[in-house]
Amino acid sequence: MKKFVLTGLMGLMTMWAQAQQQPHYTQYIMNPFIINPAVAGIENYWDLRLSHRHQWAGLNGAPVTTYLTVHGPLRKSDYSNASPTGFEMPGENPRGKAYWRDYTTPPPHPGAGLTILNDKAGPLNRFSISAAYAHHINLSPRTSLSAGLSLGMQQVSLDASKVGFLDPNDPAIGGTGILNRWRPDIGAGLWLYSADFFAGLSAQNIIPQNIGYDNGKLVGDSVYRGKLVPHLFFTTGYRLWINDDINVLPSVMVKFITAMPVSVDVNARMMFRDRFWAGASYRLHDGVAGMFGVNINSTFNIGYSYDYTASSLNTVSKGSHEIMIGFLLGNKYGDTCPRNVW
Known about the structure:
Layout: H1 2-18, E1 46-54, E2 64-73, H2 97-101, E3 109-121, E4 124-140, E5 143-159, E6 178-194, E7 197-204, E8 209-212, E9 225-228, E10 231-238, E11 240-241, E12 246-257, E13 263-272, E14 276-283, E15 287-295, E16 300-309, E17 320-329
Antiparallel strand pairs: 1-2, 1-17, 2-3, 3-4, 4-5, 5-6, 6-7, 7-10, 8-9, 10-12, 11-12, 12-13, 13-14, 14-15, 15-16, 16-17
């Protein structure tokens, strides 16, 4: 068991050194802003999300990710037709097929957002803070396009005292405590959306950057050094109606990372009257996930997901848990979920 855990820890460091630095998410389908800054300001309210993910629970040193995001519109005109309350009106479903049949695009407007994230995996810790700006335009009466940019800083830290398979007194790493490196964090994205579909393309870590903890004293490959490489995401989804109360949103995400296999997620989420939702996700060659959530009212919502890995890690871990809490701020129309499909 110790040998397996040690191998897993070395694998985490090697994975970071070679390519993968951005965290895994399951509930990005409920908060695509975490991977695409072009989503900023897409709704009439400010959307605040708090998320905590414990990946591979039970495995010592497994990744733990916590983040806060908030984004909203700037100088956006009001919708002319809106529900005045955050609770369902009696009679016909106010957000059923008829509502979406009469959907029109929101007016052109900018949006802004903020992301604060901490991702810890074994002796490595990444903290980042970034601000985003997006602009939304109309392509047709029912289709909009937005472009966004995020700028910030990230601190990548190595706790040398926790790297048990290395010599903490090795002068190559220049110390036995926490070694910090700061680097810029730049992302960009596009988001195409309408009443029934969305498609997004985004990039994180746009500028490749080297990070070293060996003070330039080592030659060749080393776990003391790594490289921040671009992460590319393509997402798309389409709304299907079962009846006036239930709709299903199948979606796909494809992730491209240098020196890593292409990652593909296939998702499906079912919504009942904009109040309750449940879904499932399949990550190619990796595992499956189940998720559910409740839009409690026009201010508060909550979601939970559980991932089961199909890799050999399932023998030492208890799966991955992710919880997300959302607050809709300045929600004067009482929306319980997004008007624009995402």
